């Protein structure tokens, strides 16, 4: 048993898709979430910058009493690759491995699509991770750089003409390949799930990287006997490097309801002093 919190971080709000699932499947766990909203997007930056930010985010998480750290960010996870020791002696997972395991288990025709930020697709990490599980899979990866600004600006409704047009432009080559499984390799993308699903059709299974990371963490903590022994509902403490009010307001779309918990501002100077 371990009553410490689970630490989750992302470049912004996308990692809240992981928090939503963690709270659903492990309601008694305490969660500490950090969204680096002052420095989002990560996905358009160089590998070196993303690695530096990731190091600082992990160092920030380690300042708290956490028993596991989840990088609920497709971009950070892809740049770190399959590095399981990114947080030193604290158990760590990105979204990469949990997501590809789920996708490989789901696909029937062996054709998987991957969408993510420019840095994620450039890294080729999802493809490499898939091949460690199954070498026979055909993979089509497409960067969708306009999806994150669409989500951040609330252009997400299934009838939103801009979102529909952008989705069609990005997803046409993947649809043409006949994939039956599509990895939403960026934790922002489940907010566009309806738009993406409508375009891809009902026979294509969408895999949410944030949710899969949460399920993976649950299985890991259960296997190591590290779940909390608390019987009451856990708390979620949020940290944001930009406006706390904006964080509160935007979080609702990701959490599927009102944000319950404290939101504390983190100065960027604090992050840069950590690593
Ligand atoms: N949530 C980030 C990810 O999963 C996307 C936003 C960004 O570009 O920082 O890749």
Structure in a nutshell:
The protein has 275 residues and is an alpha/beta fold. It has helices at 16-25, 47-62, 74-80, 96-106, 118-123, 125-133, 147-152, 161-177, 193-200, 209-223, 244-255, 268-274, and strands at residues 5-10, 31-35, 66-71, 92-93, 111-116, 138-143, 181-184, 205-208, 236-240, 263-265. Helix 2 (47-62) crosses helix 3 (74-80), helix 4 crosses helix 6 (125-133) and helix 4 packs across helix 10 (209-223).
The helix/strand class is alpha/beta
Percent of residues in beta strands: 15-25%
Shape: globular
- Bound ligands, each once: D-glutamic acid
Oligomer: single chain
Low-confidence stretches: none
Along the chain, the helix and strand elements come as EHEHEHEHEHHEHHEHEHEHEH
Distance between the termini: 31 Å
Overall average residue pLDDT? 96
Chart the SSEs and their pairings.
Layout lengths: L4 E6 L5 H10 L5 E5 L11 H16 L3 E6 L2 H7 L11 E2 L2 H11 L4 E6 L1 H6 L1 H9 L4 E6 L3 H6 L8 H17 L3 E4 L8 H8 L4 E4 H15 L12 E5 L3 H12 L7 E3 L2 H7 L1
Helix pairs in contact: 1-10, 2-3, 2-12, 4-6, 4-10, 8-9
The chain binds D-glutamic acid.
How would you explain this protein's 3D organization?
The protein is α/β, with parallel strands linked by helices and 275 residues long. It has helices spanning 16-25, 47-62, 74-80, 96-106, 118-123, 125-133, 147-152, 161-177, 193-200, 209-223, 244-255, 268-274, and strands spanning 5-10, 31-35, 66-71, 92-93, 111-116, 138-143, 181-184, 205-208, 236-240, 263-265. The strands form two sheets. Strands 4-3-1-2-9-10 form a six-stranded parallel β-sheet, with helices on both faces. A four-stranded parallel β-sheet has the order 6-5-7-8, sandwiched between helices. Helix 9 (193-200) links the parallel strand 7 (181-184) and strand 8. Helix 8 crosses helix 9. The longest helix is centred in the middle third of the chain and has 17 residues, at 161-177. The two termini are 31 Å apart. Residues 10-12, 14, 40-43, 73-75, 117, 120, 148, 186-188 line the site of D-glutamic acid (DGL).
